[in-house]
Amino acid sequence: MPERTQPGADILAQGVLLERLALYDRALERYRVAAASRDPAIRAEALRREADVYRARCQWRDALERARESAYIAESSGLTDLFTEALNAEGLVQLSRGEIDSATALFQRIIAVTGSEAIRAIAFGNLGIAAATQGDLSRAEGLLERSHESLEALGFGRATAAALASRGRVALERGDPHGARVHFERALAVGHQLEDLDLIAMATLNSAECYALSDDYRRAEDLASTALGYFTVAGNHWRRVECLRLFGDMRLRQRDARTAERAYRFGLDLARQIGARVEEQVLADRLESLVAAH
Q1: What does the mean pLDDT of the chain come to?
Q2: CATH code 3.30.559.30 for 8-99
Q3: Helices (H), ranges, the chain
Q4: What is the Rg, in whole angstroms, of the alpha carbon atoms belonging to the chain?
Q5: Distance from C-alpha of 39 to C-alpha of 9, rounded to nearest angstrom
Q6: What's the CA gap between 175 and 156, in Å, rounded?
Q7: Virtual torsion, Cα 82, 85, 91, 95, nearest 10 deg
Q8: Contact 269, 91 (CB under 8 A)
Q9: Which of 256, 260, 181 is nearest to 213 (CA)?
Q10: Which residues contact 246 (CB under 8 A, 6 or more apart)?
C-alpha cells in the first residue's frame, strides 16, 4: 500500500472523529478535502468514508457513487484491502435498501478476494445480517458468531460492537430477550469506550426493544426517545424509521391502537421517502394487521 502523506492522513483522522460525533457535514468537508489528494490510497479511503456518511443519511445514490468510485481507484492502484472495503461499503448500501441478493453477492466476492482476516470477518458478519433479513436465523447466528469471535480476537473494537449488536438482534428474533440484552450491553460498553455516538445510539435503541419485550414500557420509551433524538439530529432517517416502528409496537402492546397506527404511518411514509424497502414492507404489514384487527 502506498505510504500516505501526513497531511492527508491527518485530514482523514479529523473526518473520522467528526463522523463518530455525528457531525456529518463537517466530516464530509474533511473527506472531500482528502479525496482531492494525489495519493490513491487516501482518495479511495476518503471516498469510501463519504459513502458511509451518505448511507447513514439514506442518500443512497450518493453513497453508491462514492463507494464505486473508491473501488475503481483502489482496484486500479492494486490496493486490495481498500478495494474490498469499498465493496463492503457498496454492499451495506444495497443491504440498507433491501437489495439483499446484490448485497450478498458483494460480500461473497469480498471473502473470495481479500487476504485480510478482519475484512473477511466483517463480510461474514454482513452475510449474517443478510441471512437474518431473509428470515434464516440459524444461518445468521452461525455467521455472526464467527464474525464476532474473529473481530474480537483481532482487536477491532467498533466492528466487534456492530457484530454484537447484530447477534443481539438475532437473539431477539429467536425470542431470547435476556441473551439479546447481554449482547447489547456489551456493544454499549464498547461504544462508550470508543466515544462513538452512533454505536451508543444503536445499542440504546436495541436495549429499548429488550425492555419493551419485558413489559417495562416506561424504561423502553425513555431509551427509544433518546435514540430517536440522536438519529433525528444526525439525519439518519433509516434509524428513525426503526424507532417509529418500535414506538408503534410498544403502543400496540399497551392497547393504544390509535397512537400505534400514527407511529406506523409516520414510519411508513418516511421509509417510502428514503427507499428503505425492508422497513417499508415491515411497517405496511404492521398496519395491515392493525387495521384488520380494528
Answers
A1: 92
A2: no
A3: 6-20, 24-34, 40-56, 60-76, 80-96, 100-113, 117-133, 137-154, 157-173, 177-194, 197-213, 217-234, 237-253, 257-274, 277-293
A4: 19
A5: 10
A6: 29
A7: -150
A8: no
A9: 181
A10: 205, 208, 209, 212, 220, 224
| Distance from C-alpha of 287 to C-alpha of 164, rounded to nearest angstrom | 30
pLDDT computed for residue 7 by the predictor: 66
Q: pTM (2 decimals)? A: 0.84
DSSP, collapsed to helix, strand or coil, labels residue 128 as helix
Cβ contact 113:135 at 8 Å: no
- C-alpha 63/C-alpha 8 separation (Å) is 21
Q: In the block, which residue shows the cell 444526525? A: 234
Q: Where are the domains of the chain?
A: 8-99, 217-294
Rounded Cα gap, residues 142 and 129, in angstroms: 11
For 139-181, the pLDDT digits (tens) are 999 999 999 999 999 999 889 999 999 999 999 888 888 889 8
- Check residue 39 and report its DSSP letter: -
C-alpha to C-alpha distance for 192 and 196, rounded to whole angstroms: 7
